[in-house]
Amino acid sequence: MTGKLIRLIKEKKSPICVGLDPSLKFIPGHIKKRTFEEFGETPEGAAAAIMEFNKGIVDAVSDLIPAVKPQIAMYEEFGIPGLKAFKDTIDYCHEKGLLVIGDIKRGDIGNTSASYARSHIGEVQIGEKKFRPFDEDFCTVNPYLGSDGVKPFIDVCRENDRGIFVLVKTSNKSSGELQDRLSDGKPLYEIMARYVEEWGEGHYEEGYSDVGAVVGATYPEMGRVLRKIMPHAYILVPGYGAQGGTAENLKGFFNEDGLGAIVNSSRGIIAAYTMDRYKDRFDEYGYAEAAREAVINMKGDINGHI
Question: Rounded to two decimals, what is the model's pTM?
């Protein structure tokens, strides 16, 4: 699956991922008014608003980007209707030719981890039939429980031609409380990076493995170090834009071939119409057009630096 991601990045000249994290506060009032009139101010009404909002964003940007990254928490908070919107979003993005990175950050051990993996990037057997419950192309994995929590995901990846991104150095401010702790003189994030490179060994597409890493744009010096430790791992880079990461700091996340990383932006794209840079030209009815312009600007910004 990493090979397909690389081919789409090359084709669209766009190492960009749009985070579909549709908090209700980002959804224009006219959309919520319509869905609440139909379903009430209920989880069903919220889920319908999310789905309509997502479709508008995806329709506007799908020709510009290779992938999207829906964050499951934004859907789970609305219960079963929210999870249905998560699944419907995945299916709609696939219809538009996009790859989907399920930002689920799952991690457990043994059969539990295998069940998470099958539900998101694999198949489940029910009687004589097989089903793909959520059917993302990639998912994010929390490695805190160790290798027996990650390897079931790797096994499912290889059985189903899917990929994972393992949390290595996350973009949040408090990540260093654990991830920067020293063990045998090395920070924990470097030790995790070596595991990621090892877990992907021998399973390469276009020079990259199906075991990638999450490294925040907010830590460019660490990104440069981790790029050298993980030459065969694709890096998912959150933290660009709203969290403070800049294109100037991203070069170290990429390899000399201009590949090796895909940069995510969520609020900076889907809520662009609310931002000073765009709100003079786009009102809430133009939220999708504002998102498209934000993607074009992000693409130019990143490509201009890498």
Answer: 0.94
